[in-house]
Each structure stands twice: as structure tokens, then as C-alpha cells.
Write a structure and sequence with these properties.
Blueprint lengths: L4 E4 L3 H13 L3 E7 L6 H5 L2 E6 L10 H11 L3 E3 L9 H9 L3 E2 L4 H8 L1 H10 L15 H11 L3 E5 L9 E3 L2 H19 L4 E5 L5 E10 L3 E13 L2 E7 L6 H17 L3 E11 L4 E8 L6 H8 L3 H9 L16 E8 L1 E2 L5 E2 L7 E2 L6 E5 L14 E9 L2 H14 L1 E2 L6 H9 L1 H4 L7 H7 L7
Parallel strand pairs: 1-2, 1-4, 2-3, 4-5
Antiparallel strand pairs: 6-7, 6-8, 9-10, 9-12, 10-11, 11-14, 12-13, 14-19, 15-16, 17-20, 18-19
Length: about 450
């Protein structure tokens, strides 16, 4: 059935993005919000707003029963979970459908198979897609983690089976570190996703993080090419690009084909991302996980393909078949997204929630600004620090970096410390401009004084 009224069970910039996508389709919107988020931009933009609980996420954005109750009371016929929180919670997807509502995303069964990172590894292995050596399924306890690490060799990466966004991840170089860090990772995952399950993989040094965007309607699936997200700090992506300039055409085709095959094997519905590590020295890629939801970095794919991924998620959830053929998806130029966080790069990236002062964002056809802030907005201290995403395009990667550097020179967000200086320094870095980066690059570059070189 077509969706007439959409309930948004998320916050921040993705809530704004969903409100705008739904309204572009003529769909009424209801923004669910915590008490701390009553003044957020998505509340102002939505047709209706409903408070779903106190500031702590467990009492609001992770409170499945309250969200479903609020959605039904508002007259909504569908719920969009955004990313994070309950977006990859199969029990929530089940509960939404049991309540007679549409879950904007894949089926609960698909989330169980592919949203659970350990189960997704098993599915990839079954489909013949190469994976990083690691544990077989979820780890029962710390002793199981120690046994798995001894089998694959240290260092190992401990990872949450649920969610994404770098949460619930630790790197252990020894058994003692593993015993200390595994409980921390489990607690972080439980707080962020309501699921403290863990698995582990061997660390591949100097790998690049490449991910393939897919779109499916349960019968037909396509890819929308890949993104590179290797610039990460503490496993949080800070700079993303599309396409991945390090891939040759043959490797790109093989990588994207593997993602489509995996998506089709589970009759994937909606937007999803298959993430890989790419070893440039050997030209080999390894599947690491699937995110069964929209990603923070989806705008760079939209900018180089012209496909509105969020709108298509809603259209597919409403029963519309995916009408885009693979041969119709074409790359146009190069796009870069940088995440503007309320953090002070010069002070160890200390969070800097506060009152947003005067703002000025460059306006041009090759610039996009997806944000949650406005002048006079008081940023609540209870959630992550992402304020906005600045996205630029150019005919080539070099032209896109030049456009980004120019945009960063003119953007102004007063009253806060933000990560804009970090991105300006990265845009000026010879290593970044020449593409000589990997997933461990940024922290080493920061430790070597990269911020001070500009």
C-alpha cells in the first residue's frame, strides 16, 4: 500500500533528510522526538511532532513500544528508523509490522541474517564472497573470544554484531587487552543498539574501507557503485568519497557484482550497504559487514548517480517496484562528504555542545549541506556530535577537493568549535590529495601534527 503518513523514529540530520524526502513525495510526516530534542530542526520541518520520552536514548529513541504507540496514535502508516538506534533491530521491525504499520527497510528476517554482522559473515561465506579471518558467529563470552583470537592471530578487532557507525569496536593486540576491552565493547553496543553481542576479525593493516551501495525491492537489486571511507578517527568516518579512486574498472566491477549477488541471495528490500576492506598491495577485497539501513555517507552516492536513495526507500516500502535498471546507473564526476561535528580538533576533539550563533553556508549547484542546526539552536549534550555534512562535487577527484577547500574557507558556524579546521587541513594535505591514505592514516597523521601543518 502507498504510504500516506510517515513517522520518523530518529533525530538529527537524518531526521531532517527523511522529512524532506517524504515531503517531496507528498507524504505527511510525524517527527518523534525526546524531551531534549523538542527544538530540533526536524521537529520544525515535520507536519507533526510527538514526544516519545526523556532525553536518554533508552527511554526514547530505543523505546520500541513507545515509538510504535506514538506512531499509531498519530495516524502514521509507516515508520522510518533512520540509522543507528533501532534501524537494524529485527525485533523492532517485527513489532512494527505486527502493529499493522510499514517498516521502511528490509524484512526482519533479512535484518537477522545481514544486519547481524556475525550472521552476515556466514551468509557471505556461503555465497563465496571472501571475508576477513575471524570468529565463527557470535562469541558466547570472553573465553570464546580468547580462543577465536588465538586461532586467527593478534591483533584482532572486536566488533558489535548489531548496529554500526564504529560503535562497539575495539582493537586488541594481546590476550590481556582482549579480556579488558571485550566487556567495554559489549557495554557500548548494548547502550547504542540494545544488543551487546560481539564477534572478532583479524586486523588487516593499512587496508582501505570500501563500501557498495545497493538498492532492492525484494525481487530486483542493483548497485549504485562504491564509496571510500578510509579516513576514520577512532573508527568513526570523518571524510567519504564516491567513487573510490583507488579501484581500477575491473576490480570495481567485481566488487559491485559481489555485493549485488549477496543482496539478491537474501531478497534484499530497501537501501543497504556492503562494507569491504580493500588491500591495495594485493588488489584483494574482503567483505566485513552489511548495514541494512541508510548510511550517514549516502549523499556522495546520490551526488554521483543522481538517485535519491531515501526517497526510493520510502517508495519501495510503500510497494512500488524498483524501476531503475543496472545499466541506467552511471557515475558522474566525483563527490566528497565531510562530517561537521561539534568537537574541538585542537583540544583532543573534545565535544563542544552549545548555542549555534550566526551561520553562513556557501550556496552553489555543486555544494550540498545536510544539517540539523539553525541560528539560535541549543545543541543538547545527550547524543552524538554530528551537526551537518558538507558535500561537494567536481568533474574529477582533484576538482572536488579544490571545491571542498573553497567551501570550507567560506562556511561559518559561530558559537561552537567544530571539525571544520580538521577537514581544511586534510584538504590541504599532500597525502590526501594524492590518495595515499588507509584506515589507520588519520590517527597517525594527527599524532604527527597534521593539524598544525596548515
Amino acid at each position: 500500500m502507498a504510504i500516506r503518513k510517515l513517522f520518523i523514529a530518529n533525530r538529527g540530520e537524518i531526521a531532517v533528510r527523511i522529512v524532506r524526502a517524504a515531503q517531496s513525495l507528498g507524504i505527511a510526516t510525524v517527527q518523534g522526538h525526546s524531551e531534549a530534542d523538542a527544538d530540533m530542526l526536524a521537529v520544525r520541518l515535520a507536519d507533526q511532532a510527538v514526544c516519545i520520552g526523556p532525553a536518554p536514548a533508552k527511554a526514547s529513541y530505543l523505546n520500541a513500544a513507545r515509538i510504535i504507540e506514538a506512531a499509531k496514535a498519530s495516524g502514521a502508516d509507516a515508520i522510518h528508523p533512520g540509522y543507528g538506534f533501532l534501524a537494524e533491530n529485527a525485533a523492532f521491525a517485527d513489532a512494527v509490522e505486527a502493529a499493522g504499520l510499514i517498516f521502511v527497510g528490509p524484512s526482519a528476517e533479512t535484518i537477522r541474517v545481514m544486519g547481524d554482522k556475525a550472521a552476515a559473515r556466514a551468509a557471505a561465506i556461503a555465497a563465496g564472497v571472501p571475508v576477513v579471518p575471524g570468529s565463527e558467529g557470535r562469541l558466547a563470552d570472553v573465553e570464546a573470544a580468547v580462543a577465536a583470537a588465538e586461532a586467527v592471530g593478534y591483533p584482532v578487532m572486536i566488533k558489535a554484531t548489531a548496529g554500526g557507525g564504529g560503535r562497539g569496536i575495539r582493537i586488541a593486540g594481546t590476550e590481556a587487552e582482549l579480556r579488558r576491552l571485550a566487556p567495554q565493547a559489549a557495554s557500548e553496543a548494548e547502550a547504542a543498539f540494545g544488543d551487546g553481542g560481539l564477534y572478532l576479525e583479524r586486523v588487516i593493516r593499512d587496508a582501505r574501507h570500501i563500501e557498495v551501495q545497493i538498492l532492492g525491492d525484494g525481487r530486483h537489486a542493483i548497485h549504485c557503485f562504491e564509496r571510500e571511507c578510509s579516513l576514520q578517527r577512532r573508527r568513526q568516518k570523518v571524510w567519504e568519497e564516491a567513487p573510490a579512486a583507488c579501484l581500477d574498472a575491473a576490480t570495481r566491477a567485481e566488487l559491485c557484482a559481489s555485493a549485488v549477488a549477496l543482496a539478491r541471495s537474501v531478497d534484499y528490500r530497501g537501501a543497504g550497504t556492503l562494507e569491504y576492506l580493500y588491500d591495495e598491495a594485493t588488489n584483494r577485497f574482503y567483505f566485513i559487514e552489511m548495514n541494512t539501513r541508510i548510511q550517514v555517507e549516502h549523499p556522495v552516492t546520490e551526488m554521483v548517480t543522481g538517485i535519491d536513495l531515501v526517497a526510493w526507500m520510502i517508495r519501495i516500502a510503500g510497494g512500488e517496484p524498483l524501476s531503475i535498471a543496472q545499466q541506467d546507473v552511471r557515475l558522474r564526476g566525483h563527490a566528497i562528504e565531510v562530517r561537521i561535528n561539534a568537537e574541538d580538533p585542537a583540544n583532543g576533539f573534545m565535544p563542544f555542545p552549545g548555542l549555534v550563533g550566526a551561520m553562513s553556508v556557501p550556496d552553489a549547484p555543486h555544494i550540498r549541506f545536510d544539517g540539523m542546526i539553525y541560528e539560535g539552536y541549543q545543541i543538547p549534550p545527550f547524543y552524538d556530535s554530528l551537526l551537518a555534512k558538507l558535500i561537494v562535487t567536481g568533474e574529477s577527484r582533484g576538482a572536488a577537493i579544490d571545491a571542498l577547500a573553497a567551501a570550507l574557507e567560506t562556511i561559518r558556524i559561530e558559537g561552537l568549535k567544530t571539525t571544520i579546521p580538521l577537514h581544511a587541513a586534510l584538504a590541504a594535505s599532500p597525502e590526501v590529495r594524492e590518495g595515499r591514505t588507509h584506515t589507520q592514516f588519520l590517527e597517525a597523521w594527527l599524532a604527527a601534527g597534521g593539524l598544525a601543518t596548515r
